[in-house]
Amino acid sequence: MGNALIVIDMQVDFCPGGALAVAGGDDLVAPINAMMRDYDAVILTQDWHPANHSSFADNHPGAAPFSLVEMPYGPQVLWPRHCVIGSGGADLVPGLDTSLADLVLRKGFCPEIDSYSAFFENDHSTATGLAGYLGERGLSHLTFVGLALDFCVAWSAIDAVKLGFGAAVVESACRAIDLDGSLEQARRNMCAAGVTIA
Ligand code: VGL
Ligand code: ZN
Known about the structure:
Elements (H helix, E strand, L loop, with lengths): L1 E7 L20 H8 L4 E7 L20 E4 L2 E4 L25 E5 L22 H7 L2 E9 L1 H14 L3 E10 L6 H12 L2 E2 L1
Parallel strand pairs: 1-2, 1-6, 2-5, 6-7, 7-8
Antiparallel strand pairs: 3-4
Bound molecules: pyrazine-2-carboxylic acid and zinc ion.
The site of zinc ion has 7 residues, from loops.
């Protein structure tokens, strides 16, 4: 049984000063670096959107950032433009010890669909390939940290349980956006799914 640390979206745009800054995001660099040595494998995810991505509010004329729209695959929050492919904002946060990462998994690169989860795009069915990678390496117990707790971390951990992995979230190594109660909702959803909250 292998234990993997899955570090979600520790990127410049999600840290203070970034396009979709999560308060305190940069505080996580040191604790996450320290955790990396305790696992059999470390996987980093990177939110990676084309300029015409449908989750960007400015690609929907008249729509406000943080408003909700109905997409063919369900409701979708419209975000400020962030983590654009090749931009500095999409870079992993300086100081994050990428030398210990076995895999950097990019997600959200299809223009017409967002991907909060590291396992499935927001239609809950288009796979990123991560489950196959972990399965082939025998990594069955997953610990999630990073940004943002109430979106990409929570969706990833819930999908992990659905796929049969053991999943824990270390809340002290996460920070949340907390949009309209999204943090409490995410905690409820994680508990109901069987995610361990450490
Ligand atoms: C995220 C909103 C949009 C996240 C990514 O990493 O939680 N949130 N894209
Ligand atoms: Zn995104």
